[in-house]
Amino acid sequence: MQDHTISCDEAQRLIVRYLQGEPCPELTAHLARCEACLDACTDAALRIPAEVRVPRHFREHVLARTLAATPVARWQAAEYPMVLLAAVLFPLVGAALWLSGALQGLATPLFQALARPEVLAAAGGMETALLLLWLWRMVSAEA
């Protein structure tokens, strides 16, 4: 379909400049009446890559806000000393018991017990229950 002002061939040549921001009232009038040229203009506009300028420090800002909003961040801030204490004490107590000889007699029966599937399944069930309890606590603390 052709317009009285410009032809479809001329409209096709003007589309690129039009999309770059050059005013062209003849093309605007033609696009209002010609579906084929309007489709060509839309396709050309969709092929132009969007120019996005990301502000400086955007990544750091998003990460800081995301981490501050998570229950894990609040948990770490509130219970960090207890976690640190547990992380230091458990290996120390275990090493002291092992070196004292108190655990050496338990090693063989312990390894034999852990080799049984029902014991491993029970341990996995307990770990899952503890994990679910911890997750429930984090979600309920957020609400």
| Alpha-beta classification | mainly alpha
Q: SSE order in H/E notation?
A: HHHHHHH
Q: Main sheet? A: none
Helix coverage percent:
over 70%
**What is the distance, rounded to the nearest whole angstrom, between the alpha carbons of the first and last residues?**
61 Å
Report strand %.
under 5%
Please compute the radius of gyration using only Cα atoms.
Answer: 34 Å
Number of strands: 0
- Low-confidence stretches are none
What is the overall silhouette?
Answer: rod-shaped
- Mean pLDDT across all residues, rounded? 80
Please report the number of helical segments: 7
Describe the overall structure.
The structure is a single chain. The chain is mainly alpha-helical and 143 residues long. Among the domains are: 8-47, no CATH class; 105-143. The protein is 77% helix and 0% strand. It contains 7 helices and no strands. It has helices at residues 8-19, 25-33, 35-47, 58-69, 71-100, 107-114, 117-142. α1 packs parallel to α3 (35-47) and α2 packs across α3. The longest helix has 30 residues, at 71-100. The two termini are 61 Å apart. The relative contact order is 0.06. The mean pLDDT is 80.
